[in-house]
Every structure is written in structure tokens, then in C-alpha cells.
């Protein structure tokens, strides 16, 4: 029984498994090191470090790719074929082998040269995009998107057996989901939300002028720190830093770092911090036993976004939440909010208004920004839309879906970073997350009947525990589909989300609810 299974203390011991696990542990260490270098680059590094940092990242990424795709990993996986059959399919061991096999087979299909070229093109594309956006000059960005698109077509060719080339790209962000399934959800959102936004536009509009402040930054920081503390941010495992692009990073379940930004003329930082807290909490509540394995992260971007949206919107834009928190805020900013009552504030932070910029969009119109990007990137990939026509196609859809005129490309096709780094297939996950967040919320409301009272009282322990037990702790042990099934008891379904938005529109705008 040199490598075969042996029982020791009730545990199945397998040397091939142990070897696989230790190799995967090293690869995971390297991945976290990459992310740490990226975090440092965003948060700490002086700009002068960029060139050397790019070399460091390229080296670590090359070593990671070599180790992750080594023949030896394949040999160990082959050896574990029989062992896998003996395992409980829901066990840590079986999950690790399954995920390792999937990752290995996927990574092996992509030649190292292509991988490196995509990484290089992403860095170059980012630079070009920044210049193009600052000068609102699409022609400067066009070569970057062209190169990225060409590389993604070559990437797609590395795979076979898909129904739609876009499946391959979507799979990098939402593993296992087919384009047709994402499309069905997005088209349903488009069909329902264009008329809902129009009905809301015809209703009397709430006053939201006071949301432009001024809100002194020192006060924002105080309020934000207190708010995060109530949600569950503990300094022993979390960090908050200030940078241009809000984000969440995890370097293991007890090292979660989120970032935010402040502006005197907005309270956006509070919602952005709750959003990133949701991402961070997902990573923080993964079973610590999964650390140093590829299971120790969120299972898909859609499920990840469901967690950020749950805290930002379902909790953070709800009346019970503000009942608990608003007195603190009004006290912090008496000049602006002293004369604004709780209901008026709650209405203002839920104001629906079609706008040009996705990241500033409200809950209703946000998804129309996503549908637009999904449709355009599919058309670019299959060649039915040329890059010359992209800005105009963008503007036409903005008019059609949101009723707004795009004044220049900086406020249109150049606003998002994603295509500059070749991240085609990413956008749908934002809307999938919105949809899933409300499916999860429905389950939570049943499981914790006095959830609203708890939220109002600033008690989030039961909410966090439910999310941990039904979703977070599994990490990548199961597929996204299986994970969702465990959390909500069924597949993705846009109807609860649409029902939630309609109920809110009825509440806040008097728009008649539909059957
Ligand atoms: Zn997010």
C-alpha cells in the first residue's frame, strides 16, 4: 500500500492526496502573494515602483502557472481516480480533488505564451485606457480593445465542446454557467426594468439635493468606522484603506482588506464600504480549514456580488437599517441633515434616476447598463459589431434603454476598466449577483423572522451566521450552481428580484404593484 488508501484514526490517509494538497498549498501561497503585490501597488506603493512591480508580478505569475499546470499534478490526479470513488462526494478531500482537476485541465489548455501575452496586453491596455478616458478619445483605446479581443478569440480556440464562444469567457467568472442561461436572466431584466424605470420617472420625485453635502471627510470616516464595526468589521482580521478604486482583498480568512474613497459632496463611501464589506465577509467566513487550498475563496463572481449587494442594498438601503443608524449620521452632519427626517433620507438614497455612469446607477437602472455591455461584448466577440461602430452602438442603446444622451466617450464606452484588461464575460455577474442577493434575502427572512428588528437594533450576528452556514463556509467546495441550490433551494430566478424592485417602487414612488 505504497500510495493507496490506509486508515489511521478513522481518517482516510492517502499519500498522493497529501502530495497534491501540499503542491496546491504552494500554488495558493503564490496566488495570494500576487494579490498582495497588487494590493500593495494599489494602496501603498509610490507610482515610481510600477515598472519593477510589473516584473515581479510577471515572474510570480509565470512560476504560479508552471507549478499549477505541472505534469506532476496531472499524474497525482490520475493516481487519485480510484481513491476519489471511495470518498464522500461532499467531503473536503473529494471537493479538493474535483476542483484541482477542473482547474488543472482548464489551465493546461492555455499555452503559457498566450497566458503571458494576455497578461501583458491587460497591463498595456490599462495604460491606454486611462489616457483615452482622461482625454475622452476612443481612438486611443481602440488598439487595446482590438488586441484584447483578438487574444480572447485565441483563448476561446483553446477549448471545445461549448455551445457559444462566449461560454468560455463567462466560465472564467461564473464557472459552469452557459451564455443562454445568463441571457435569459438579463433579457427578463431588460423586459421588466425599462417600463418600471419609465413608470418611476413619471411619478413625483423625492428631494435628494441634500445628498450633495458638504459632508466633511473626518465625519464620514468616523461614521463609516462605526457603521462597519456594527456590521462585523473587527480590526484583528480586517483593514480599511483609502484609495481611488474601492475593492475587497483576502489573504486568508483572517486577513481581509477593503478600500474606499471619500468625497465631500457625497455619502457614497458608506454604501461602497458596505458593498466591499459584503465581499470581505464572504471570504472571512469561509471555513478556515480550507485555507491554503484553491477552495478558500468565493465560488463565483455572481455569488460574490450577491454578498456585496446584500449588504449594500438589502441591508444598507433599507428603512430598518437607517432607523438604527440615521441618528448617528444626522448628529455627525447637523448642517446638512439636521432638518432632513429619516423617511426623506431613506427615499433619497433609494432615488431611481437614469444616468450615464454604471457605478453611480440606482438599483433599477443598474441592470440596464449591464444588459447593454453584455449585448455589445457578445456582438464584438462574434464579429457582428465592428470596433469602429462600438461607441455609436453604445450611445444608441443608452438612448433606447435609459433614455439618456451620451455627451462624450468618457461618459460612454470608455467609462469601465474591464475591456481594457480583456475581461470580456465579466459584466453579467453584476446582474446575476443582484438577482441572487434577493433570492438569498427571501430565505433569510424566513429563517430569521425578526430580521428587520435585529437590523434596526444593529444586531447582525444572526444574519452573518446564516450566511456563513448556508453559503460562505463552503468556499469553492461545490459548483456555483450547487452552492446556490444549497443557499436558496433552487436555480437562479430573476422574479424575486423584480418583485423586490416593484415593491420598493410601490413604497417609495406609489407605482402600482403588479400581480
Ligand atoms: Zn462588487
Can you walk me through this structure?
The protein is mainly alpha-helical. It folds into two domains: 158 residues, no CATH class; 262 residues, Neurolysin, domain 3. It contains 22 helices and five strands. The strands form two sheets. It has a three-stranded mixed sheet with strand order 3-5-4, with helices on both faces. Strands 1-2 form a two-stranded antiparallel ribbon. The longest helix has 29 residues. The protein binds zinc ion. Zinc ion binds next to α11 and α12. The site of zinc ion has 4 residues, from α11 and α12.
How do the strands and helices of this protein lay out in sequence?
Layout: E1 6-8, E2 11-13, H1 15-43, H2 50-68, H3 71-79, H4 81-86, H5 92-108, H6 112-135, H7 138-157, H8 165-171, H9 179-202, H10 217-231, E3 238-242, E4 248-250, E5 256-260, H11 268-284, H12 301-315, H13 319-332, H14 334-337, H15 342-348, H16 363-381, H17 390-402, H18 428-447, H19 451-456, H20 461-470, H21 480-488, H22 495-509
Helix pairs in contact: 1-2, 1-3, 1-5, 2-6, 6-7, 7-8, 9-16, 9-22, 10-11, 10-13, 11-12, 12-18, 13-15, 16-17, 16-18, 18-22
Zinc ion is lined by residues 275, 279, 305, 308.
Task: Offer a few descriptive terms.
22 helices; mainly alpha; 515 residues; binds zinc ion; globular; Neurolysin, domain 3
